[in-house]
């Protein structure tokens, strides 16, 4: 049993869900779909990788990515190249066009969040919130069947 009260968990979840909704609302109208943004963001943060590794980062089955990868490639946001070490494996990478689309999508949300933090929070609250980034990541990657796994797979 846990010492965390259900009401506290509900309040925390509510706050995170509302913030997530608000950040999605702040996206530019002409934005790329969020599933594509997630994939592009992963390729930006971790660099080129095979589809199976990308699926692990996105917590998806490789088959689930097939259409999205094809759509990203069609829009010229990603490129496929054979792995020089194993030519049977295809490596996916973010293109300069994809980086511009990702940056445009993220910039508007960054601006809103910075403005909201500046005007709605005290300096102490901003510091506390910024100190939680690693805690949010640990929660996001926790697996009940592998409690030691608290980091995004590489």
TrEMBL record:
InterPro entries, sorted: HTH-type_Bedaq_tolerance (IPR052526), HTH_MarR-typ (IPR000835), WH-like_DNA-bd_sf (IPR036388), WH_DNA-bd_sf (IPR036390)
Gene3D superfamilies named among the record's database cross-references: Winged helix-like DNA-binding domain superfamily/Winged helix DNA-binding domain (1.10.10.10)
Xref: Pfam families: MarR
Ranges where the HTH marR-type domain occurs: 1-138
Range of residues in the leader sequence: none
GO molecular function annotation: DNA-binding transcription factor activity
Protein name: MarR family transcriptional regulator
Organism annotation: Gluconacetobacter asukensis
């Amino acid at each position: 049993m846990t010492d965390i009260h259900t009401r506290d968990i509900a309040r925390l979840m509510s706050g995170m869900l509302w913030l997530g909704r608000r950040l999605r609302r702040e996206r530019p109208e002409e934005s790329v779909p969020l599933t594509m943004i997630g994939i592009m963001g992963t390729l930006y943060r971790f660099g080129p990788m095979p589809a199976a590794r990308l699926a692990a980062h996105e917590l998806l089955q490789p088959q689930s990515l097939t259409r999205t990868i094809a759509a990203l490639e069609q829009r010229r946001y990603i490129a496929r190249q054979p792995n020089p070490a194993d030519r049977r494996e295809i490596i996916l990478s973010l293109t300069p066009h994809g980086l511009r689309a990702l940056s445009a999508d993220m910039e508007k949300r960054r601006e809103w969040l910075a403005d909201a933090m500046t005007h709605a929070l005290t300096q102490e609250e901003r510091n506390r919130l910024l100190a939680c980034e690693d805690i949010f990541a640990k929660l996001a990657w926790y697996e009940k069947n592998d409690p030691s796994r608290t980091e995004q797979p590489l």
